[in-house]
């Protein structure tokens, strides 16, 4: 299946943000069209055809063959792009392969990867005599409904009629289609009649009951003007928060890490580099504790926790996730935890000379630190499902035993100079959480 992206228009309403062509305007480190290409790649579509118009040379020069993005890109130029997006969509007829199924989307629409993945799965089952259109019937959640192309849908679900000026509607068009040639024929008919908009051709098919609707459950944004651009930026940043986040991470850390990620998105810093920076800050925290500066040690531990979220946010935001990066982050996190607790134990011993107590409590804390991640990994391996603390732990998910909570305890211990109490609490909550989880999943396993 190929992905066809319409990138022919002028996009004058976004000039306030950049003098670049609209598809090449950067949004949190990637251009709008790169976001579409990489999202399609995440869904297994590696052949991309881009329909250009106003900015043909600029787009070709910027994207090239697609090798930099790990895909193959071809181009078709529509010299009559001013007539309407239907003419641009019909330009694909020059490269269309008989009975080919393809995905058609707009360069200035941003889609959640999960939305595309679900749509493509539905498209794979699409019959030859049907057009599939992504639609959103969550009208109370749609941004700027007034500017959307409205859909009157009926049972099936099928589109009965589309139009921006529809007064009676129950869904909106997301600008995402799956076609097997039916749309191309309708576009030819529509253009012959002097109707040049993509919606004109879709209405011809809707009148024949041939437009199936796929209702979406994830975010999408039509980035059409400065207000929509800002909205999309906020939506993308919110989407970076994973459901497995601990209580401290969600309520404290992300308020800072998302702001840092927003500033770093346009730079070339990589997730692995952020992982190293987070580790170095943790090492500085350990040294601060060891040299009897608990206040700085505690604050640096919390900063390390915040930065530990930035690496994953950058990876998800810029499509830089990798299995190695996930492992690299996990290993350095374990080293960082070990060093911080070691620094705290050394501080306890240096200030009190309570050798036995410092050794036993610190050993218990060090033993408990990796148990949360170990449990989650084993659970995923045995069940094939992710262990989500907020769901699986019930009320106990408030227990600060995940890494974000543990580093928060360390910060408090440093601020109030209560290192022994912090280590005792670390040992208690980590082992208590593990024992509770073992009991809770016994019936599942």
Structure commentary:
The protein folds into two domains: 234 residues, Spore Coat Polysaccharide Biosynthesis Protein SpsA, Chain A (Alpha-Beta Complex); 200 residues, Four Helix Bundle (Hemerythrin (Met), subunit A). It is 52% helix and 14% strand. The protein is built from 16 helices and 13 strands. The protein has 445 residues and is of the alpha/beta class. Strand 9 and strand 10 form a beta hairpin. The longest helix is centred in the last third of the chain and has 30 residues. Strands 1, 4, 5, 6, 8, 9, 10, 11 and 12 form a nine-stranded mixed sheet that branches.
Could you give me the name of the CATH homologous superfamily of the largest domain? Spore Coat Polysaccharide Biosynthesis Protein SpsA, Chain A
**Helix segment count?**
16
- The share of residues in helices is 40-55%
Instruction: Please compute the radius of gyration using only Cα atoms.
Output: 27 Å
CATH architecture of the largest domain: Alpha-Beta Complex
Q: Main sheet, how many strands, which sense, barrel?
A: 9 strands, mixed
DSSP strand content: 5-15%
Q: What oligomeric assembly is this protein in?
A: single chain
Give the overall pLDDT as a whole number.
94
In the CATH hierarchy, the third-tier topology of the largest domain is known as Spore Coat Polysaccharide Biosynthesis Protein SpsA, Chain A
């Amino acid at each position: 299946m190929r992905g066809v992206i319409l990138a022919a228009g002028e996009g004058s309403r976004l000039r306030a943000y950049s003098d670049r062509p609209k598809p090449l305007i950067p949004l949190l480190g990637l251009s709008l069209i790169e976001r579409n290409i990489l999202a399609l790649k995440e869904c297994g579509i590696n052949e991309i055809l881009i329909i250009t118009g106003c900015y043909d040379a600029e787009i070709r020069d910027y994207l090239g063959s697609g090798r930099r993005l790990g895909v193959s890109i071809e181009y078709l130029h529509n010299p009559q792009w001013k007539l309407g997006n239907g003419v641009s969509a019909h330009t694909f007829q020059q490269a269309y392969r008989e009975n080919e199924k393809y995905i058609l989307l707009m360069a200035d629409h941003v889609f959640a990867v999960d939305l595309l993945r679900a749509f493509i799965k539905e498209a794979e089952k699409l019959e030859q005599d049907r057009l599939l259109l992504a639609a959103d019937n969550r009208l109370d959640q749609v941004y700027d409904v007034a500017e959307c192309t409205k859909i009157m849908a009926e049972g099936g679900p099928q589109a009965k009629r589309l139009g921006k000026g529809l007064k009676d509607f129950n869904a909106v068009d997301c600008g995402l289609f799956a076609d097997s040639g039916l749309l191309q024929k309708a576009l030819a008919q529509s253009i012959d009649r002097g109707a040049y908009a993509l919606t004109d051709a879709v209405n011809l098919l809707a009148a024949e009951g041939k437009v199936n609707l796929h209702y979406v459950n994830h975010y999408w944004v039509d980035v059409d003007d400065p207000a929509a651009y800002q909205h999309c930026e906020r939506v993308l940043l919110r989407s970076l928060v994973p459901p497995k986040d601990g209580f401290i991470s969600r309520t404290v850390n992300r308020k800072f890490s998302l702001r840092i990620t927003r500033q770093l998105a346009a730079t070339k810093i990589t997730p692995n580099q952020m992982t190293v920076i987070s580790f170095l800050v943790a090492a500085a925290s350990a040294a601060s504790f060891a040299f009897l500066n608990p206040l700085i040690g505690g604050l640096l531990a919390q900063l390390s926790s915040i930065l530990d979220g930035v690496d994953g946010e950058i990876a998800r935001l810029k499509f830089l996730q990798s299995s190695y990066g996930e492992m690299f982050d996990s290993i350095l996190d374990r080293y960082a935890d070990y060093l911080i607790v070691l620094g705290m134990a050394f501080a306890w011993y240096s200030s009190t000379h309570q050798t036995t107590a410092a050794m036993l409590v610190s050993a218990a804390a060090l033993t408990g630190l990796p148990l949360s991640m170990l449990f989650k990994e084993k659970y995923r391996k045995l069940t094939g499902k992710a262990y989500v603390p907020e769901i699986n732990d019930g009320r106990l998910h408030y227990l600060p035993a995940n890494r974000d909570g543990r580093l928060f305890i360390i910060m408090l211990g440093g601020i109030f100079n209560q290192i022994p109490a912090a280590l005792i609490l670390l040992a208690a909550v980590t082992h208590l959480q593990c024992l509770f989880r073992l009991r809770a999943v016994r019936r599942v396993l």
